[in-house]
Amino acid sequence: MDLLKPMEKSKPRVATEMKSAAQLWAEEEARVVLAKGKAAAEAKAKAKAKSDDEIWGTEARERAAAKAKIAAEARAAEEARISAATTDEWFYILNGEQAGPVTLAELKEKIADLSIEPPLKMVWTEGMDGWKPVYEVRKLCEPAPAKEVISEPVAEVQEESKAEMEARIKATAEARAADEAKLAAARKIEDQMRAQDAKDARIALADKARAKADQEAKLQGDADAKVAADTKLREAAVAKATEEARLKVAAEAKVGEEARAAAVARAKAIAEEEAKAKTEAEAKLKESEAARASAEAKAAEETKLRAAAEAKAAEEAKLRLAAEAKAAEEAKVAAVAKARA
């Protein structure tokens, strides 16, 4: 938590400045104008909520309700921590610098004091998570204790009810930035009222307040129109992004399908090539086996012929030996016959 830590504690300030009749009247006029502006803002918020319901439906309402519940619980927890704090010391930012500590009552008086410029906007006390705007701190929106008013114009002002006081304090805190020009005009008119009739000054101030309210309404209308245009552009951008995402998914699916088809075709071609190679290998193997069988048959035939030739040669040798033996026998017989002769 990034906080501006108090460097030095100051003593509580007891004295407060009294408000003049013009200041009180200007404050009342500002309350009326801001109440009207708040009513118009609430009407616009309701219209926007209705439009959001039509656009986003039940889911958006549930998310908004959950977010509001979480925010309410966080505010309640912070308020509980503030209530549990033992010190009544509050700090605030004035002219970009930290000031305090002051009591809660003193801080409320400073917030309601229209003579402080620029007005108090950011506050902090023990138990808070960080610096918060005045209108977000419920304790600062509670009415301050009524005090005795001495001046005669102020004595004629009736005591405000609790609800009116709360609305006045909250409205003053929320509209400080818009009221700076109005407060300057109120101070100028206050100086003039010393020499002029009070009724004429109130009428002039009311005219200025109405003109300011009209200008703020116009600015609010322009802001609402810009928000609507931004919403329309954002919805168009979301629709475009959705369409681009859909086209990208379709393109990726197409690429995947083409890759799958290419893979199937490649696998089919490889299978056909392998089948062809296998068929050629089997045919070549059969041819080799046939050639080997033919060679073996030829070798067997040659072996058979060689064996037959060898058998014939052996038979011829046997006949030759028989012939030679017969010739030798005949020669012997002839020799014997010749010897006898």
Keywords:
four-stranded antiparallel beta sheet, 75% helix, mainly alpha, 7 helices, 341 residues, disordered N terminus
Task: Describe the protein's architecture and organization.
With 341 residues, this protein is mainly α. Helices cover 75% and strands 5% of the residues. The protein is built from seven helices and four strands, in the order H-E-E-H-E-E-H-H-H-H-H. The chain has helices spanning 21-84, 104-112, 138-141, 152-155, 162-174, 176-193, 198-340, and strands at residues 90-94, 97-102, 122-125, 132-133. It has a four-stranded antiparallel β-sheet with strand order 2-1-3-4. Strand 1 (90-94) and strand 2 (97-102) form a beta hairpin. Helix 1 packs antiparallel against helix 6. The longest helix is centred in the last third of the chain and has 143 residues, at 198-340.
